Amino acid sequence: MAPFDPEAPLPGAPDPWAGSEMPAVRQGPPYAMTEMIAAEPALAERLVQRLVADPALGQLAVAIRGAATQGRPIVTTGCGTSEHAAMVAAELLTAALESTAVWPMQALEAARRPPAHGLLLAVSHEGGTWATNEALKAARAAGSITALITVSERSPGAALADHVLRTDEQDQSWCHTVGYLSPVIAAAALARALHDEPLDAVTARAVLEAAIDEPSAEGAAAALAGCARLLIAGSGIDYPAARELALKIEEGARLPASALQLETIRHGHLAAADERTGLVLVLTDAEGWGETLVERSRAVLRSAAALGMPAAALLAADLGDDVPAALTPAGRLSVPLAGRFSRRAAAALATAIPLQLLAERLARARGRNADTIGRDDPRQAAAADA
Questions:
Q1: Which of 100, 130, 209, 308 is at 20 to 30 A from 225, Cα to Cα?
Q2: 2 confidence band (pLDDT: 50, 70, 90)
Q3: How many CB atoms lie within 10 A of CB 289?
Q4: Are strands 277-283 and 311-316 parallel, antiparallel or unpaired?
């Protein structure tokens, strides 16, 4: 097998379109997930360049502005990793529209209660997710404009969308990393397009390259690998990142993990925590709340310390001095920010690789191949098909 080239474009969707099959099982690292993380900086640069040149981006921005101006509902939706990317999209679009709230909904809920005469923006990496496609059908039947961020315009989901933003390159691991980052980049580009400002491709790549810190990820993974379960906490745009980290840990490392809002975690959940429960805090303060948010974050870490919980953190580079190192004995990963992006957009992009690296190294530390998300186990495969 030829060495993996992280600069080379990834394959697109099969032609004719078909859903992906489980990746070939590798006996050891590097896994496909490892390679996908390594590919992300170059992929980000390519994707931004394609998106800003794609008329579909501007057309969708016009549709979103129109819905906002007319006071019509705007909803984002998806399942799993795509749902988390859709949550990020809602945050970025709400900030860009300023006076209009964009609401994220899980796809099955969006199918049950579709926006009427509004706009539904769905995220589906391959475009074949049943619940997401049902949400697109329901929204169209309710008179809404439909849009989809996906790899290919040939997918079943794309056939249900009035606007399709193509990301073109398909994740080669089932523990999706590219499948998360690609729609986040598309959402950031769309938010900028609402102000007729292009996203900068070189800066996007630089932010992701600066976020690669394998030694810190390995150290935190080693400290957390012996835990019976993990709690992941975040607020604002850090909450979707916390949810994505929890999902990646469960899929990849097969370690139970729950994502909680920062303020929620201290309202009863710690009653079930002890020294075998690990904590990971995601803190970028992307919304600029300042000392109040930082102090609430320190309080959660102090609670963890009182319970003997090993705690780690994904911290914005400019907040490291605000959180004492003693409160993160399991280590920390720095989240770089870029002045050429809004803090929200920078945080959304820059948390992706640290959370993915932590999950991938945690899978290695626990002797798991993250690529298969457990489907190489016949019981897990049967559960998925049940």
A1: 209
A2: confident
A3: 12
A4: parallel
SS3 label, residue 230: strand
- The string of pLDDT tens digits covering residues 326-366 is 999 999 999 998 878 899 999 999 999 999 999 999 999 99
pLDDT of residue 384: 87
What is the per-residue pLDDT for 1? 64
Rg of the chain on CA atoms, in Å: 20
Contact 245, 355 (CB under 8 A): yes
Rama region for 29: left / alpha / beta (φ>0; ψ in -120 to 50; rest): beta
Question: What pLDDT does 307 receive?
Answer: 98
Q: Which residues pair with 146 in a beta bridge?
A: 120
User: DSSP states of 303-356 as a string?
Assistant: HHHHTT--EEEEEEGGGGGGS-GGG-TTEEEEE---TTS-HHHHHHHHTHHHHH
Place of tokens 């974050």: 297
CA–CA dist 284, 256 (Å, integer): 24
Per the structure block, which two tokens stand in for 308? 């003997």
pLDDT at 340: 82
Q: Is 109 helix (H, G, I), strand (E, B) or coil?
A: helix
